[in-house]
Design a protein that fits this description.
This protein has helices at residues 2-25, 44-58, 61-74, 107-120, 127-141, 161-164, 176-184, 190-197, 207-216, 222-230, 257-263, 270-273, 282-290, 292-307; strands spanning 204-206, 243-245. It is an all-alpha fold. It has two domains: 44-169, Peroxidase, domain 1, CATH 1.10.520; 176-305, Peroxidase, domain 2 (Orthogonal Bundle), CATH 1.10.420. A two-stranded antiparallel ribbon has the order 1-2. Helix 2 runs antiparallel to helix 4, helix 3 crosses helix 5 and helix 11 (257-263) crosses helix 13 (282-290). The longest helix has 24 residues, at 2-25. The radius of gyration is 21 Å and the shape is globular. Bound molecules: protoporphyrin IX containing FE and 2-acetamido-2-deoxy-beta-D-glucopyranose (2 copies). One 2-acetamido-2-deoxy-beta-D-glucopyranose (NAG) binds at residues 211-212, 215-216. It is an enzyme of class 1 (oxidoreductase). Residues 31-327 form the Plant heme peroxidase family profile domain.
């Protein structure tokens, strides 16, 4: 009897623990789905795409900026549209935090998409979801892979300057282990991190971000370094905002040239070149450099995973009327 009793109570403990594991482990994305708005806003995808196409045809770089926006939104308190909020008297937002100030772009495009979406289905679609769709559309327009975007995120009622500044978004001076740790902290693997870094096949960076690398790093191609030094002078402070393409070969095409650059020590950021510098991610960089199909499918899978980070669902948060302001 005592044996039976202790057996059943210990299996009860196991069941309760298992229940907690299921609840905690399943919290991130269970509620997102690709058909979330299929009845409530059937024109959503075409509406978003038309605005993104228009913006990218005017400026190719905008596609890159919209891809990055998802990363910087999702890594700070989840994919909740918080990065879109301007400062208010009740909170200081994320837009002027270190990783974003004078750097993150695309807010006007998101606001424009939102205005169009409100015309076709008012009060239905979150800004957080619009960011996720715009990142996918931009990738496709620039020649990258397509994927089905999971939807159903709601918008935050606040944003956090301090959270955006806390190091959750790793800096470009990062070591490989810091990059791996920061992505791990968001449930993303080293493989996801290497694949997502492949989005540095598009877009631009400022001199102030890569100056230390092109003057001081030793794992850099010397002619590449001197080319970049021409438009990124010393001393620090002069030409800080001068831009250079993250991918020296095809800066506005979404392809796997980023990894080929790394093999040739032509990564623009210190945090790019650490992915191929004799460490644990070298083999993945080699694989993606020679196998664009594997890169494309791993990138798409990692973007879906990144879009699953801590969404607000159910009755949490709100559906903003305008993306730059809480209701
Ligand atoms: C692995 C860690 C990462 C670091 C350290 C990093 C760092 C940076 C930095 C410093 C810039 C240039 C900022 C400036 O000069 O103002 C940049 C640009 C960019 N990043 Fe990352 N990034 C990382 C991961 C990602 C991820 C995961 C994505 C998206 C999936 C992404 C997409 C982009 C894009 C597209 C640009 C160009 C944006 C534009 O031209 O407007 N990055 N990144
Ligand atoms: C953001 O950049 C501006 C320069 O454009 C600067 O004046 C301001 O101090 C920066 N904000 C923060 C918080 O660093
Ligand atoms: C290069 O490294 C030296 C020594 O650490 C430092 O004083 C200098 O500021 C660095 N140069 C740049 C451009 O970062």
């Amino acid at each position: 009897m005592g044996f039976v009793h202790s057996l059943s109570s210990s299996s009860m403990v196991v069941c309760v623990l298992l229940g907690f594991v299921l609840i905690l482990g399943g919290k991130s994305s269970a509620q997102l789905s690709t058909d979330f708005y299929s009845k409530s806003c059937p024109k959503l995808f075409s509406t978003v795409k038309s605005v993104v196409e228009d913006a990218v045809s005017k400026e190719r770089r905008m596609g890159a900026s919209l891809v990055r926006l998802l990363f910087h939104d999702c890594f700070v308190n989840g994919c909740d549209g918080s990065i879109l909020l301007e400062d208010t008297s009740s909170f200081r937002g994320e837009q002027t935090a270190g990783p974003n100030n004078n750097s993150v772009r695309g807010f006007n495009v998101i606001n424009k998409i939102k205005a169009k979406v409100e015309q076709v289905c008012p009060g239905i679609v979150s800004c957080a979801d619009i960011v996720a769709i715009a990142a996918r559309d931009s990738t496709v327009i620039l020649g990258g892979p397509n994927w089905n975007v999971k939807l159903g995120r709601r918008d935050s009622k606040t944003a956090s300057f301090s959270a955006a500044n806390s190091g959750v978004i790793p800096p470009p001076t990062s070591t490989l282990s810091n990059l791996i740790n920061r992505f791990q902290a968001k449930g993303l693997s080293a493989k996801d991190m290497v694949a997502l870094s492949g989005s540095h096949t598009i877009g631009q960076a400022r001199c102030v971000i890569f100056r230390a690398r092109i003057y001081n790093d030793t794992n850099i191609d010397s002619s590449f370094a001197s080319t970049r030094q021409k438009n990124c002078p010393l001393p620090t402070g002069s030409g800080d905002n001068n831009l250079a393409p993250l991918d020296v070969q095809t800066p506005t095409a979404f392809d796997n040239d980023y990894y080929k650059n790394l093999l040739n020590q032509k990564g623009l950021l210190h945090s790019d070149q650490v992915l191929f510098n004799g460490g644990s991610t070298d083999s993945l960089v080699r694989k993606y450099s020679s196998n664009p199909k594997t890169f494309n499918s791993d990138f798409a899978a990692a973007m879906i995973k990144m879009g699953d980070i801590d969404p607000l669902t159910g009755s949490k948060g709100e559906i903003r009327k305008k993306c730059n302001k809480v209701n």
